C-alpha cells in the first residue's frame, strides 16, 4: 500500500508498506534465498478474498485477486492506493561476471571504475547468454500465466541501462497481451535526488 503526502517545493513524498498474506515472498516464513518466483508463479498465495462470489470462481486465483485489489482501492482513503508491483532485476550482465571473476572487494575498489578488461566490456553492460535465458524464463512465465488470468502490467518502467532494456524486451515483447495494454516501456532514470 502506498500513501502520498505533499513534500517540499510541491513534490510528493510516498510511503510504502507491504501487505502480508498475499504473496509468499512477503511472508516472514519464506526463505528468500530459496524462493523461486518462476516455480512459484510469482508467489500468489491461494486463498479466499472478501470479494469472492460464486460467479467469480471461474476467474481463477489471479482474477479474484485483481477484483480484491480493485475493491481495496475503491475503499482506500484519498491519499492511499494499493498497487501490485512486479519488480524485476536485470538478467546476468558482463559486469556481474567481472565482479565474480575479480571478487567484490577488488571489483568495488578498482575494476568497476574501468570500462572493461580481459575481453569483457561492462560499461553499460549487455546481458550474457545466461542473462538472456533468465529474461526468457520470465517471458515464459508470463506466457503461462496470462491465460490463467494474471492481469498484465498497466505500466512498464525501465532504467536507461542497456541490460535493463534488453531484459524487459526479452521478458515482455511478443506476449499475447490484451488489446489496449501493450508493452510500451517508459525509460526512466532515477537517482538519489530525483523527485
From TrEMBL:
Ranges annotated as spanning the membrane: none
Gene3D superfamilies to which the protein is assigned, alphabetical: Phosphoglycerate mutase-like (3.40.50.1240)
Domain of life: Eukaryota
InterPro entries in the cross-refs: His_Pase_superF_clade-1, His_PPase_superfam, PGM_Phosphatase
Protein name: Phosphoglycerate mutase pmu1
Organism: Paraconiothyrium brasiliense
Gene assigned in the entry: PMU1_2
Amino acid at each position: 500500500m502506498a500513501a502520498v503526502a505533499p513534500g517540499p517545493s510541491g513534490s510528493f513524498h510516498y510511503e510504502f508498506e507491504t501487505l502480508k498474506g498475499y504473496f509468499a515472498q512477503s511472508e516472514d516464513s519464506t526463505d528468500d534465498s530459496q524462493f523461486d518466483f518462476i516455480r512459484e508463479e510469482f508467489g500468489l498465495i491461494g486463498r479466499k478474498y472478501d470479494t469472492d462470489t460464486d460467479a467469480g470462481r471461474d476467474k481463477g486465483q489471479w482474477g479474484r485477486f485483481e477484483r480484491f485489489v480493485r475493491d481495496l482501492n475503491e475503499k482506500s482513503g484519498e491519499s492511499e492506493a494499493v498497487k501490485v508491483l512486479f519488480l524485476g532485476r536485470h538478467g546476468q550482465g558482463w559486469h556481474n561476471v567481472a565482479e565474480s571473476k575479480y571478487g567484490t572487494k577488488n571489483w568495488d575498489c578498482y575494476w568497476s571504475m574501468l570500462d572493461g578488461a580481459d575481453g569483457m566490456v561492462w560499461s553499460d553492460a549487455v546481458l550474457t547468454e545466461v542473462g538472456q535465458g533468465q529474461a526468457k524464463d520470465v517471458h515464459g512465465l508470463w506466457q503461462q500465466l496470462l491465460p490463467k488470468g494474471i492481469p498484465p502490467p498497466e505500466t512498464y518502467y525501465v532504467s536507461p541501462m542497456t541490460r535493463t532494456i534488453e531484459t524487459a524486451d526479452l521478458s515482455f515483447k511478443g506476449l499475447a497481451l490484451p488489446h489496449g495494454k501493450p508493452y510500451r516501456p517508459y525509460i526512466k532514470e532515477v537517482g538519489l535526488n530525483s523527485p
